[in-house]
Amino acid sequence: MVVTEKFEPKRLLTAAQQHQPVMLRQLEELVSIESPSDTKAAVDQASQLVARWLQALGGKIRWHRQKHFGDLLEVRFQPARSKSEPKNPILLLGHLDTVWPMGTLAGMPFRVAKGRAFGPGV
Length: 122
Prior knowledge:
This protein is an alpha+beta fold. The protein contains three helices and four strands. β3 (111-113) and β4 (116-118) form a beta hairpin.
């Protein structure tokens, strides 16, 4: 990780805390879509939700369709326009399948307790 003099951990923490209610609502919405790895339609539904969120933030969506497993989602954001913005690209990789079988939410619903979130895939 390259740290520049502009990196301010306190500022990042403050921003995350300000957005925490929205992030928790979105996490609950995502967790509420059961998405076991072997159920393509369910994983695709979770990916479509995340694609809508990222598109609303200005991301350009590209789908890599799959026959047997969930479609792969690629999202790109335009490079920074101002000189004060970082120019180095960042690559984030992740997965949206929760692995847990369908029906798990009935016994393990999303919840927040003692500052921690719980649920399938959390």
